[in-house]
Amino acid sequence: RLQLNDALNYVRERGRLDGRILAEKISETFYELNGAEPSLDELVDVFRRIKSELADEAEQDLIDSGYVKDTKDNGSAYYLAKKFGGDFNKAQPADIVDYAFRIVKEDWISRAKSVFKSTKGRLPNETELQECVESLALKLATQAVDGTFVEYSDVNDYDSVA
Length: 162
Description:
With about 160 residues, this protein is an all-alpha fold.
């Protein structure tokens, strides 16, 4: 316990010293760019942005390593596409499967809403939407097992889907 306190005190002291050096470097750079010394508020703002960017980077590292769930992930395929910047070469196989799943999920929900609205004249409630999506999934599974394929356009009314 005593060694831990000593180590913590050393890190704090080192942080103060490094913080002073960093503040001097930032002030010098600010002067070179703007021709004037930064005000205290401007210097504090720079440190806040650095702290925020370091925190974001650390959070992303924890998310990438799987220790923390990504709280910004809204469950959409668009989010994953944005996360990988369209370059899925660096994605893990599980990420690609998740991306494909999200695309299919969004497509089925969209189609179920569309079929329901075209037949009932309104959007489905949550229960009706679930029943419609389940019916579409069951039809797709049946077709996959039978080796047949029916276009979604052939399903033109809610009653045949649900």
